[in-house]
Structures are given as structure tokens and as C-alpha cells.
Amino acid sequence: MEKRRVLSEIYILFLLLLSPYWVRGESIGFNIGYFYPSSSSVRDLYGNNWLLMGISIPLNVYQVFREERKEYISLDYIHNSYSGVFEGSPYDAYVTNIPLMYNTRYQNAGKNFYYTYGIGFNYLKVKVNIGSESDSGSEIDLGGQLAFGYGTDNLGIELRYIEFGRGGNTGLCLTLAGRF
Q: Is residue 12 part of a domain?
């Protein structure tokens, strides 16, 4: 029940954030990919490949000499569920990260290579079930990302390094990004 409430709140937040851009006809970005945690203990507990889905909302575009700078806000959803054995007992673990970041993308005119950096907040939710016992927790941390991409204004592939702070969910992302 709690999970449905959180997902419905995220859906409503998406609609509220996107509505002004749909009216103005701005291009909104969508991405999908995988997150690979850099910590072996996080991978052991929660698994290796986590699903990443997200949107990006454009803010400003600047032309500085032969370089184009695009500022945008990104909201991602990174999740994985994993089952394993801990000290002889089977367990189920669920982890969700929802980073909200302010980003700046730099791209030279006429080139397909770009790089991006961003900073923002991350909501982390963790739940572990061991046998009949359950434990969960959540926290909000500062986070940041650095991304290198290749593509056009409409479609690209990105390699990101994301740092989520205390939660230990730092790692690499490989994403396919599209802007419509």
C-alpha cells in the first residue's frame, strides 16, 4: 500500500512538472538504462544491474562562442529487487533511488560528443525481508553526476557516474536518452 502511494505521488509530481512544457511545446527528454553500483557490498546485497528510467525538463539554452550550453532538471527512478541468502537465511531486498538534479550540458557546435554535470538531491528507500522479519529505511542526500554522451539533439547514449552520498549507492549508468 505504501509503495502505491509513493508511486502515485511521483506520477502526480511528473504531471505537475511537465504541464508548463507541454503547453509551450518544449522538448522533454526521456532516458532508460542500467545503473551498476561501484561498491561490492551494495552489489552483494542488492544485485548488480538496476533499472533506470527518467525525464529531463529543459530550462535554458545559451550560445557561448562555438559552444552550446543547455540547462535542465532531471528526475530519475533507479530501482532493483534482489533475492539471496544471508547467514543461511533467504532474504529479499528492494532499493529505490529517486535523484532530482539540476544539470548543465556542454556541446561544441556541429559535434555529436557532449558532457554534462549535475547536482541535486536523492531520495533513497531500502527494504529488506529476512524470513519473517522486515526492516526498511529512507533518507535524503545530496548527490551529483558527471556524464559523457554521444548523439544528436534527439537521440544519444550516455555514460554517467553518479554519487549519492551516505547511502553508498554510487556507480555507473549506461543510458539511452531521447528528446522529443
A: no
